Amino acid sequence: MRAWLGFWLSLLTAVMWGMLPVAMVLVLGKLDVISITWARFVFATLCVGLLLRQRKQLPTLQLLDSSRRWLLLVAVLGLLGNFLLYLIGLDLLNPEATQTIIQVAPIVLLFGSVWFNGERLAPLEWGGALLLMLGLVLFFNQKLAGLFSALGGETLGVLSMLAAALSWSIYGLVQKKLLQQLSSLQLTFMIYAAGAVVLLVFISPHAMLQLSLVQYSALLFCCLNMVIGYGAFTEAMQVWQAAKVSAVIALAPVFTILSMKVAVWAMPAHFVSSQLNALAYAGALVVVAGSMLAALGKLTGKKKVPGDCVSK
After folding, report:
1. DSSP string for 61-83
2. For the chain, N or C: smaller number of CB within 10 Å?
């Protein structure tokens, strides 16, 4: 029973995170990346804060020793960097591309764990990493020459997404240390609250008041997506093996592709088909397979690598 619950919670996370970049496209047409991120952080802070208050578990900085307070700052900057760079990449690329490239993040985290924690990669993890890289080459088969010949918008988009993956990996490595003194909900509350405060001076209140009903609905979905997606992910991690949770969540690009197809059909005035060829779709599936293989490879290793997943 717990295994089935873990599977369905993981699948819900994959669906929510897969749909996220499609909804973001509607908001990015009117609102800047900082204001979008701030709104999501504030919404998540309120939701998680109310839950912790009900449980009488609201955290304070006194729960952390001085060295880990610096790590908390790094975690905040890492997650903020991930969110902002992800949106910049989404503004320059199509949703399918962004969700495919961000699958690099767990692989970077694996190698980061080898470098900083002395962990060893299992053969399946190596195979998954190589398969993922092959999938990315196939996905961009139509644009490989352009990506490397000039520093255009798409090239900057790819670089931004890779930087987002690296930023999240730094957050993932740091949070492992912080979770030794805080629960996962307490840690996310502190990070969301700190992020909301940091971004407050950079937001555009006037622009947030100029959104259409469709854009407000999309922004609300993005905020709910953050709470529901991470809530389902956290619960899945508690009832199921981290490697299996990560493997199911690797399906997110598939749901992005399906969501984009539905969006183009239902709202042609707001969405344009990405015009991907068959080889690009095959590449996306290879990326998913590589990410799943790398995640499941954790089950064969002697030491386990952190099982967290990509934040958006």
Report:
1. GGGS-HHHHHHHHHHHHHHHHHH
2. N
CB 22 within 8 A of CB 259: yes
DSSP for 120-153, written as a single string: ---HHHHHHHHHHHHHHHHHTTTTHHHHHHS--H
Q: Round to whole Å and give the CA distance between 252 and 259.
A: 10
Token pair 């790590």 is found at: 71
Phi, psi (deg, nearest 5) at residue 41: -65, -45
Tokens 């190596």 belong to which residue? 126
Place of tokens 């997506």: 225
> Are 128 and 293 a contacting pair, CB within 8 Å?
yes
Q: Are 51 and 292 in contact (CB under 8 A)?
A: no
Per-residue pLDDT tens over the stretch 80-127: 999 999 999 999 999 999 999 999 988 887 788 777 766 677 888 889
Apex 169 CA angle, 12 and 2, nearest 5: 30
Q: Which amino acid would we find at residue 220?
A: L
Tell me the residue type at 161: M
- Cα→Cα distances 224→72, 100, 115, Å: 24, 22, 35
Distance in angstroms (rounded) separating the CA atoms of residues 260 and 264: 6
The four Cα atoms 17, 20, 21, 24 give a dihedral, to 10 degrees, of -160
Ranges of beta strands (E only) in 194-279 are none
Q: Which residue has the higher pLDDT, 183 or 81?
A: 81
Residue pair 95/21 in contact by the 8 Å Cβ criterion: yes
- The predicted structure's pLDDT at residue 306: 42
Mean of all residue pLDDT scores within the chain: 87
User: What span, in angstroms and rounded, lies between the C-alpha atoms of 28 and 134?
Assistant: 30
